[in-house]
Amino acid sequence: MNSYSLTHLVLVLLALPFPPTPPPLYCLPGAVGGDRNITARIGKPLVLNCRGAPKKPPQQLEWKLNTGRTEAWKVLSPQGGSWDSVARVLPNGSLLLPAVGIQDEGTFRCRATSRKGKETRSAYQVRVYQTPGKPEIINPASELMAGVPNKVGTCVSEGGYPAGTLNWHSDGKPLIPDGKGVSVEEETRRHPKTGLFTLQSELTVIPAQGGAPHPTFSCSFSPGLPRRRALHTAPIQLTVWEPVPREVQVMVQPEGGKVVLGGTLTLTCETPAQSSLQIHWIKDVSDLALWKGRDWEL
Ligand SMILES: *[C@@H]1O[C@H](CO)[C@@H](O)[C@H](O)[C@H]1NC(C)=O
Ligand SMILES: *[C@@H]1O[C@H](CO)[C@@H](O)[C@H](O)[C@H]1NC(C)=O
Q1: Do domains 21-129 and 136-241 have the same CATH topology?
Q2: Is CATH 2.60.40.10 correct for 21-129?
Q3: What is the CATH T-level fold of the domain 136-241, as seen in this structure?
Q4: Name one GO biological process term (predicted).
Q5: What is the pLDDT of residues 257-270, one digit of tens each?
Q6: How far does CA 215 lie from the centroid of its chain?
Q7: Domain ranges of the chain
């Protein structure tokens, strides 16, 4: 049934009279018209239309640009020459940039006069972008200790333009650096040749005591241009250890810890009743030798 109707559709399309003429506002990928802000991906071609220009020569039109490649305004001659590899005027009056680069950011203007003598101006503000690789968390912590600063990990995003920002999230909520419980150390580097950015953000947190025992952390890259999507790292899940409560005390019997040789010294570790902690006895290592061979009971 499906294959039948598909065949039927194909036959109908083939039966159409000669190539349908494109509608007047035919939109080709990368072709834009009007006074606009344009964002173009680095390395891709960009076509800017010169509004009001006759579709074929002879035309009266002038393209000029003020970008990172020019000193102030440069008028492009239709013959192009050395600029052909960067920007050239097409036979239909549009401007083609075969491979947009960071230096092409700037303003492009065209002034065209129609066959009837009507003048039309187009202006474009061009900004370029490159999507970085997916951000990653490097050197992630394996566990955290509540109440003290812990490095969670370093989020890295490589090869983006413009720089954009890195943001941390915990359990799905944004972590706002406040210099107290949450702090980040950021670094932005620029590749000397490509001009692309590498961002690094190291997160340090002080987990609240009695807080979530297994928080997740993730990081996202927010592009520096509007309407471009954020990129997220995979989340990491960490275990938070609670420190030994302050109420833990060591009781010494007899008081002061002074005993006669051969006497008994009792040390008692007191913890709050509700705690289910493991108790470890720790002794100065340097003294350990003195204890060798003595009675030492737990
Ligand atoms: C001019 O030609 C280019 C390349 O074929 C095309 O992308 C662009 O849309 C054309 N401009 C107009 C105004 O049709
Ligand atoms: C173009 O971008 C500028 C800021 O970069 C903004 O003020 C302006 O409104 C934008 N214009 C359009 C048509 O989006």
Answers
A1: yes
A2: yes
A3: Immunoglobulin-like (2.60.40)
A4: regulation of cell adhesion
A5: 677 777 776 666 66
A6: 22
A7: 21-129, 136-241, 249-291
Residue at token pair 């173009």: 40
Residue with tokens 């790292």: 233
CA 148 to chain centre: 28
pLDDT above 70 coverage of the chain, percent: 73
Substitution site in 32, 107, 125 for ligand 2 pocket (most atoms within 8 Å of beta carbon):
125
Contact (Cβ atoms closer than 8 angstroms) between residue 151 and residue 133: no
Nearest residue (by CA) to ligand 2, atom 10, is 37
Residue 227 Cα, ligand 2 centroid: separation in angstroms? 13
Of 91, 200, 110, the closest CA to residue 155 belongs to 200
CB 152 within 8 A of CB 64: no
Q: How confident is the model at residue 163 (pLDDT cuts 50, 70, 90)?
A: very high
Which protein residue's CA is at the shortest distance from atom 7 of ligand 2? Answer: 37
Q: How far is the CA of 280 from the centre of ligand 1 (A)?
A: 78
Distances (CA, A) of 292 to 65, 75, 283, 285, 296: 86, 91, 13, 12, 9
Q: For ligand 2, is residue 37 a contact (CB within 6 Å)?
A: yes
Determine the distance separating the centroid of ligand 1 and the alpha carbon of 184, expressed in angstroms.
48
Nearest atom of ligand 2 to the alpha carbon of 37 = 1
**Closest Cα to atom 1, ligand 2: which residue?**
37
What pLDDT digit, counting tens, does each position of 131-155 carry?
Answer: 999 999 999 999 999 999 999 999 9
Interstrand relation of 60-67 and 106-113 (parallel, antiparallel or unpaired): antiparallel
